[in-house]
Structure formats: structure tokens, C-alpha cells
Amino acid sequence: ARAFFSRTVMGRLGRDPRFFDYAEGSVSEHLLQRAGYALSALDPGDNPYLQWLLLGCHRSALPYALRQENFQAIRENLGRLDCRVQSLEEFMGTPEASDIDGFNLSDIFEYMSERNACQLLEKLIASGRKGARLVYWNLLAPRRRPDRLAHRLRPLEELASELLRTDKAFFYSALNVEEVL
């Protein structure tokens, strides 16, 4: 199992080795521990991501976007999507990048230096409305709001902890939920 989760094997399966430039600790140990958590603490029968990883298909659980009960709501809101082929940094320089209520950033900061992550975080804060929430995950590179931004961004640690504990995308080491002040 450790070999499967190694940087080498993951690189051969399509993960660019540069994605681990800022990783701390053992990739295989972390992912093995998190997989163990998903298999024992979460219900594998209710986890579409775990099923996909282990079986290559969805058996008893579907991701939110593929569930029949969500089809109509998604279809009705397709017109609200604004798809762009550009980096987030480029988008943050456009007029549309203002008064944003929420940011789902996945693990974007994982793949950049702390300095670049902080610079992007400052741009996101500047674009967010008061009360806007930023949500981002950490896989192996610890990223959090720097102390110097404490007056502009408040961590919602209890909420983040609860969401991480039940997150079906189980492989992350941390979830950050922060609010623009």
C-alpha cells in the first residue's frame, strides 16, 4: 500500500511530481493513514470518491453532481456559470473579480510557495465582500492565513474541523474555512 501511494507511483499515474514541491512529510504515510480513516470511520458504501478509487466505478454512492435528485437544479442554473480558461491570478485582475461572496479553492495553495499563496490570498480578500468565505484544503503543504492578515480574515476553525471530519474527499490533511472581515 505504501508503494501505491508513493510519489513515484502517483507520478506515473498522472500526478505531476512538481505538485509535491511544497509537501511536508511522507506522501505515502499520510495517504495510507487517511485511507484507513475513510475505510474505518466513514461509511465506504456512502463514499463515491472511495468507491471510485477502489472499484473504478460508483456502486452505491454518487457524487452530488451525478445524483438524479440534483439534476434539475443543476440544469436550471447552468446559465449562471461563467467558464473561463485562465489562472485565478489572471481572473483576480478583471473587473468581474469584485464583491464575491464565496471562494471554493480546493487545494490551490498546495502547489505554490508560501509567498505566492499569501499574495493570492490578499487578492482574494480584496475581492471578497465582508463576510465572504474562503474554503481551501491542504493535502501535504500546510497553508493557513498568515498572522499578518489576521485583521482581514478570521478562521472558522470549529466549522472547518467538523467538515473535515465528515469529508468524503478523505485524503486531505486540513480544511480551512475563513471569513473576510
Q: Which regions have little confidence, pLDDT < 50, spanning 5+ residues?
A: none
Distance between the termini: 44 Å
**Biggest sheet: strand arrangement:** 1-2-4-3
Shape type: globular
**Please, what is the average pLDDT?**
88
Radius of gyration: 18 Å
Sketch the major β-sheet. Answer: 4 strands, mixed
User: What is the count of β-strands?
Assistant: 4
Share in helix: 25-40%
Sum up the structure in keywords.
181 residues; alpha+beta; 4-stranded mixed sheet; 7 helices; 14% strand; globular
Structure overview:
The chain is an alpha+beta fold. The termini are far apart. Helices cover 36% and strands 14% of the residues. The chain has 7 helices and 4 strands, in the order αααααβαββαβ. The protein has a 4-stranded mixed β-sheet with strand order 1-2-4-3.
Q: Would you summarize the structure shown here?
A:
The protein has 181 residues and is of the alpha+beta class.
Write the layout of secondary structure elements.
Layout: H1 7-12, H2 27-40, H3 48-55, H4 68-76, H5 88-91, E1 100-104, H6 114-127, E2 128-138, E3 153-155, H7 157-166, E4 174-180
Parallel strand pairs: 1-2
Antiparallel strand pairs: 2-4, 3-4
